[in-house]
Amino acid sequence: MQYKRQRPRRRTPGGMRTNLEEGDMHLIEEHLYLGNIVAAQDPEALKEHNISYILSVFDDELSVKCDSLTYMQIRVYDMYDEDLLTHLPEAIEFIDSALGSGKGVLVHCHMGYSRSATVVIGYLMSKTKQPYEPVYDMVRAKRLIGPNKGFRNQLSVFAEMGFTLNAKNRKLRQFMVETLLTSDTFWKKWENKVDAYFARLELIESMTGELDMGAGYVCHKCGHKLFNEIHVQRSTASEEDEWVGIDSDTLSDGKESCGYLYIEPQKWMTGLLGVTADDGPGLIKCPDCAQELIEYNDMFDPFTACYCLSHKNLFKCRRFRVADNKIKIESQNELKLD
Ligand SMILES: [Zn+2]
Ligand SMILES: [Zn+2]
Questions:
Q1: Cβ atoms within 10 A of the Cβ of 169, count?
Q2: Cα(296) to centroid of ligand 1, in Å?
Q3: What residues act catalytically?
Q4: Cα 300 from chain centroid?
Q5: Which domains, ranges and CATH numbers included, belong to the chain?
Q6: CA of 255, nearest ligand number
Q7: Which has the closest alpha carbon to 85: 156, 140, 137, 189?
Q8: How far is the CA of 260 from the centre of ligand 1 (A)?
Q9: Band of residue 41 on the pLDDT scale cut at 50, 70, 90
Q10: Which chain residues have CB less than 5 Å from ligand 2, an ion?
Q11: DSSP one-letter code for 259
Q12: What percent of the chain has pLDDT over 70?
């Protein structure tokens, strides 16, 4: 097949050039290659390195594909608030099955710099049970890489969870609301993302053994079941907001609670949302008694920025809130989140 060979523009943060050899792909470990889009579309080079599996980590299409190769794709942009985290287990499985077959596998994105490097580092972290830094150093010694800050945080969360996805992990749940559903970049697509969010969350919940959803919350007026404790977003103890790098202590106004619960979106809300972009908070009524229950906001603005002690380091993921006098607890099961 004929194709035009195009070299992607080489760039490093600050436009710095380095002395590291910038090839299209580099061998990171036996049979495991990290490279750019040129490498992924170079049949000769792939053959030469005995590569039979290609993992594409970008939002584009390969214009050259070979029938004899096995492909997998994770569609993400190279942005800090894109979700790579929840794709890591399937990526690891793909790389494992490739390496198990004794063939080579190429993990690539456009530059082989951020997205694909994140996946390769995540793979090696999970295999060696090591934290980010030493694995980054090892890969960096072989290729010029630079996972973006959001991806680095995602790898840390992945390591904290023991390299599996655990639906009981507060950070993971916050991350999912923040990235899959309410990312600032794509807030206009909010309605289109709801289904994907719930599908992804259900997948992870099904992977988590014995998931206790905690106490149920019901409408104060009519007793209609609304959500569970696991859906309530609370600040994790004494931690800064790593996602946005803000020192939460200086932001906290010292109040224990503001009288609201911030909650994850619920499936039953889907039909009740009419996204308001500029007109301030929307309102969701109780499906049973039509009491106005939940306020929501599609944009990041002061409405969602609460600095009470319960919410101070939940920065970007708070979009839905309910005043605590509009709900009551249905049962008193203890729930301990990680
Ligand atoms: Zn608050
Ligand atoms: Zn009600």
A1: 20
A2: 14
A3: 109
A4: 18
A5: 25-160 (3.90.190.10)
A6: 1
A7: 156
A8: 6
A9: very high
A10: 219, 221-222, 224, 286, 288-289, 291
A11: S
A12: 75
Q: Which ligand is nearest to the CA of 327?
A: 2
CA–chain centroid gap for 305, Å, is 21
Q: pLDDT band at residue 2, thresholds of 50, 70 and 90?
A: very low
- The predicted model scores a pTM of 0.75
Q: Tokens for 77? A: 């942009």
Tell how far the Cα of 231 is from the centroid of ligand 1, in angstroms: 15
What is the Rg, in whole angstroms, of the alpha carbon atoms belonging to the chain?
22
Distance 282 CA to ligand 1 centre (A): 18
Ligand 2: distance of its center to the CA of 293 in Å?
Answer: 8
Closest Cα to residue 270, out of 188, 211, 195, 176?
Answer: 195
Q: What does the alpha-carbon distance between residue 108 and residue 122 come to, in Å, rounded to a whole number? A: 14
DSSP class of 189:
G
**Is the per-residue pLDDT at 138 higher than 90?**
yes
CA atoms of 233 and 311, how far apart (whole Å): 8
Ligand 1 centre to CA of 6 (Å) is: 52
| Dihedrals phi, psi of 96, to nearest 5 degrees | -60, -45
| Amino acid letter, residue 108 | H
Residue with tokens 């104060």: 220
301 C-alpha vs ligand 1 centroid, how far in Å?
14
Q: Which ligand is nearest to the CA of 260?
A: 1
CA count, 13 A, side-chain hemisphere, 135 = 22
Place of tokens 């889907």: 270
**Cα–Cα distance for residue pair 172/239, rounded to 1 Å:** 15
Count of Cβ atoms closer than 10 Å to residue 217 Cβ: 23
Two structure tokens written together for 126: 């999970």
The DSSP symbol for 208 reads S
- Reading the block at residue 7, the tokens are 């070299």
* Residue 120: per-residue pLDDT: 98
Task: Give the ligand at the shortest distance from the Cα of 303.
Answer: 1
